[in-house]
Amino acid sequence: MTKEVIDPASGKSYSLEHLKPFKVTYGIKVSGEPVDVPLHVHFSEHCYTRSRKDGDLDEAVLFREKKRGGQVDERVFCEARWEFSKSLPAIIKDLHSKGCYPGGSKEMFYRQENAPINNPQHGWYICTRLGVSQKHKNLTMSVRSAHYRTNKPFDIRGGTKRFYALLAQFYASEKRKRDWL
Q1: Residue 93 has what pLDDT?
Q2: In the chain, what is the greatest distance between 2 CA atoms, to the nearest angstrom?
């Protein structure tokens, strides 16, 4: 990831230093035994961009990417997401016993932050995927997006589970497949 992004609409430069990859270790239990699990964390460009809306100028588009189904998503800088992204490293480092919503696949989960008391489905949703780098022989956490919503993401499966429980399930599944774990 680059060290800064320039918003083409305003010409203003925004630092991305806070989104540098880092390693964090979580303690879990697998079959009753304590295990320290290091995760290599990285952040996607969706943490500080949003889909282009009607009225956004052509020159505001930072990049284009294909989505499932072949549609092209044009991404523009989002100051609100960028501002919230500054809190992401601390949120990830403090995730261990926090409640997270399981996603549509076993390695996907969502963490909700800043939910107002009077409207508990509103808030910032952090979409994250656990993964494996066979090349580097390590486990990864990809922070795929962080955005404010007024409803839960459609692929949430059930109620919250503690992050350490989701990680233990993922780790146990991967350990059976990989002799280096």
Answers
A1: 96
A2: 56
Rounded-to-10 torsion of CA 158, 162, 168, 173? 10
| CA–CA gap between residue 41 and residue 83 (Å, rounded) | 19
Contact between residue 101 and residue 159 where contact means Cβ atoms under 8 Å apart = yes
Burial 120-148 (b: 16+ CB within 10 A, else e): eebbbbbbbebbbeeeeeebbbbbbbbbe
With CA atoms as reference, report the closest residue to 19 among 88, 83, 79.
88
160 φ, ψ (degrees, to nearest 5): -75, 150
Question: For 86-99, what is each residue's pLDDT tens digit?
Answer: 999 999 999 999 99
What's the chain's Rg over C-alpha atoms?
17
> Are the C-beta atoms of 21 and 143 separated by less than 8 Å?
no
Q: Taking a C-beta distance cutoff of 8 angstroms, is the pair 101, 112 a contact?
A: yes
Closest by CA to 15, choosing from 117, 86, 70, is 86
Pairing outcome for strands 108-113 and 99-102? antiparallel
First-to-last CA distance in the chain? 28
Local structure of 23: helix, strand or coil: strand
Residue stretches of the chain with pLDDT short of 50: none
pLDDT of residue 100: 93
